[in-house]
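This section describes the prediction task in plain terms. A model, or a person checking by hand, is given the sequence of a single protein chain and must write out its three-dimensional structure as a string of tokens. No templates, partner chains or ligands are provided. The sample shown here is typical of the held-out split.
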Amino acid sequence: MLLLWLALLLVGVCLIVWGADLFAEHLAVAAAQLGISAFALALLLAGAEPEELAVAVTAALRESAAIALGDVIGANIAICLVALGVGAVTAPLPFGRRVMSYALGGLPLGIIASQVMWDGAVSREEGLALVGLYILFVAVIWMWEREPPALGEVAELHEAEAKSPTPVSKELGLVVLSLLAMVLGSICLVEGVRQITQVEETQTRLSLSVVGFATAFELVVLAWSATRRGATEVAIAGVVGSFAYNVTMTLGTAAIARPLEIIDANLLHLPLLIMIGSLMLGIVLALPRFVIGRRAGIFLLSLYPLALIAIFLPP
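The expected answer:
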């Protein structure tokens, strides 16, 4: 029976990764054909990080707060250490004004969200406040840059210019199909973890590692492909900006769906510190020349296994 639930978990991961890739590939084209921005369409349909959002909300509705909280924290650790690391190893990673503004803006949001999660509970009211913080974050960035922020899969907006024209119904249908795949994958993933173990501690650790990495994998691919094409700041901004999205919109929406609470909040304390520290480290490494080089990228990647080991240590 264990093999069956492991297989279900694997199917969930595959569906989420495939759905997220399909979403990123066709969102911008569908938006351009509809005459609206990809950012607006993303917010209308599923947000800038639909895979994390789908998993967290599904876990909340299934009364698996450990999975929802672990996914948010684990995905952000993977984004900061693995996605940025892979991008920097592939080519020097520009960390210019736009990326730095996302990172510096995401840092206080991460600290606020960590304070909210510190006691192992996120109420519906706190969820609403976190969603409000995300809206404020987007509004400030939008007014400052005078264009919509490039967050998550929305960062591939400029790819629409290179796509051959296809019927709008087909592109929109593929976007909807990608969302359905991610929702189905989230159900499989959450149910797989729930059936593998009913122990909250084990669910938390699996979510901080396996689930978090699975939902962040699309951004790892995005960082790699972006740097291979010349390391465009738009795509890298999407990677860094996703940190802010996850600790506000993803966490907040999950708590609105159903308040989150785990018994042993100590399980989250060290991972939360690692999450904040990972973003701070990325900023520090970029500051001297506003670039994360190959050596720094290797350093970030080498820290991820250490982070996983720390996560699995007794609290």
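For orientation: The first strand starts at residue 93 and ends at 94.
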